[in-house]
Design goal:
The protein is α+β, with helices and mostly antiparallel strands and about 240 residues long. The chain has helices spanning about 10-15, 25-40, 70-75, 135-145, 145-165, 185-195, 200-220; strands spanning about 5-10, 50-55, 75-80, 90-95, 105-120, 125-135, 165, 180-185, 220-225, 230. It contains seven helices and ten strands. It has a four-stranded antiparallel β-sheet. A four-stranded antiparallel β-sheet has the order 7-8-10-9. A two-stranded parallel ribbon has the order 1-2. The longest helix is centred in the N-terminal third of the chain and has 17 residues, at about 25-40. The protein starts with a strand and ends in a 7-residue tail after the last strand.
Length: about 240
C-alpha cells in the first residue's frame, strides 16, 4: 500500500495479552512496530516504509508514559500532548528527538468542523482541526531556546562577524546601518561545518540544523528576511 503513516491508537488497545510493565513484553510490542515499518517498505522503489506512530497514555501524575521504558528507548521521537487549563491552549512538546531539536513546543486549540455527509444514524458528523495558538508553552519556548538553537545562533554571530554584509535599506529591513547579515544557506553551512547536529545521516543533520535555525528565529534571537539572516542585538552569544 506504500503507507506513509501507520497510527496505533492506543498502546493499551493494541498490546494484546502481555504486561506493558514487563520489559520483555514491551520489547515484543516494539518488534511488532518494526515489522509494520519494514513490511511497508519497498526497496525496489526506494520506498522507506511507513512512519509508525503510537499513542500512549501517561501516568496519573503526568510525569512519564505508562509501562516499561523499553518503548521510550526505542522511539525516534517522543511528543507529549497536554490539555491546557484556565483558558490556555493545549500543548505538544518534543520531549526527545533522535535527529532533531529537543524541547520544541507548539501550542494549539481544537476547532470543531462540521462535515458534509451525515452518519449512518442520520446525525451530523464532526471532526476537530488543530490550529496553532500562542500559549504559555510557546512563550516559554521563545524565552528559552534549546541548546542546539543557541549553538546555531553562535554560528550565525561568528560568520556574520567574519563575512557579514550591511543589510539592504528599506523594503522592510530594520533601519540600522551597522547591522550586517549573511545568506541563510551560508548560516546553515556554518552550522554543518561546526557539527551543530551529530546525526549520522546527512539528510537528518540538515533537517536537525534547519529546526535549530527555525527555533532560534522563533525565540527572537535571530531575524531574517529575503533569505538573509542576522543575530538580534543582545542575543548574539546566548
Amino acid at each position: 500500500m506504500r503507507a506513509d503513516l501507520v497510527v496505533l491508537d492506543t498502546v493499551v488497545r493494541t498490546f494484546g495479552d502481555g504486561d506493558e510493565n514487563a520489559a520483555r513484553d514491551m520489547g515484543g510490542f516494539v518488534a511488532a512496530l518494526d515489522r509494520l515499518r519494514t513490511e511497508t517498505a519497498d526497496p525496489a522503489a526506494e520506498w522507506p516504509g511507513a512512519h509508525v506512530a503510537v499513542i500512549h497514555h501517561g501516568r496519573r501524575d503526568g510525569a512519564n508514559a505508562r509501562g516499561s521504558i523499553a518503548l521510550e528507548g526505542a522511539a525516534d521521537l517522543i511528543v507529549k500532548v497536554a490539555r491546557g487549563g484556565d483558558g490556555e491552549p493545549s500543548s505538544a512538546t518534543v520531549e526527545a528527538a533522535k535527529d532533531d531539536v529537543d524541547h520544541a513546543a507548539l501550542s494549539f486549540r481544537l476547532r470543531v468542523v462540521e462535515l458534509d455527509a451525515e452518519g449512518s444514524d442520520g446525525e451530523p458528523r464532526r471532526t476537530c482541526v488543530a490550529e496553532e495558538a500562542e500559549g504559555a508553552d510557546a512563550r516559554r519556548a521563545k524565552a528559552s531556546p534549546s541548546p542546539t538553537a543557541r549553538q546555531a545562533v553562535r554560528c550565525l554571530a561568528d560568520v556574520v562577524a567574519r563575512e557579514g554584509e550591511p543589510l539592504p535599506q528599506g523594503a522592510g529591513f530594520p533601519p540600522h546601518a551597522n547591522l550586517r547579515a549573511v545568506r541563510v544557506e551560508r548560516w546553515h553551512a556554518e552550522c554543518e561545518a561546526r557539527s551543530v547536529s551529530l546525526a549520522d545521516k546527512p539528510h537528518h543533520r540538515r533537517r536537525s540544523i534547519a529546526r535549530a535555525m527555525e527555533q532560534a528565529q522563533r525565540a527572537g534571537a535571530v531575524a531574517s528576511r529575503d533569505e538573509l539572516a542576522w543575530p538580534v542585538r543582545g542575543e548574539t552569544a546566548p
